[in-house]
Amino acid sequence: MTISFDPKSVKRERLARAIRDLGYRVSAASADASPAKKLLEAPIGEASPAFLRDARDAARQAGQLLVVGFTATWCAACKELKKETLESDVVAPLWKRAKLVYVDLDEHPELGKAFLVGAIPDVLFVAPDGRIVDRLREFESPDAFKDRLSRLLSK
pLDDT band for position 5 (50/70/90)? Predict the structure, then answer.
């Protein structure tokens, strides 16, 4: 996720502190980027549950995109997205090049707070370097999701 701001009205240090207070790390976007441009990184640290750290490590080691699907057993829209899109035959071939992990927010509510999940379903796309590169906060058809994931995998 990229945050843009007007450095004339907001001091970078204050913005960085607010981002860190939310549980994110702040890093330079790239060597040639303006220092005012910062990226948010997925807050998957040693305090995160083992299944999430393991998924992050496996994706990172393979140089793959990590897709984190936030869900709950009672969430009808989450079940629909999982069954009709994420586990569809249209999208299935792409999971060879990306790692999918689900986070049940009933079991891990702290992760919802750390990742700023306001409503579910919520799907994060995390690059191997830990940057959040995209986010989906609603149902998406299998074809549209395939296009989104293909685009992210080609970067």
Answer: low
Domain ranges for the chain: 2-41, 50-153
Query: What is the spatial distance between Cα 40 and Cα 3, in angstroms, rounded to a whole number?
Result: 8
> Predicted confidence band at 95 (pLDDT cuts at 50, 70, 90)?
very high
List of residues 6+ apart from 3 with CB closer than 8 A:
15, 19, 38, 39, 40
**Fold (CATH) for 50-153:** Glutaredoxin (3.40.30)
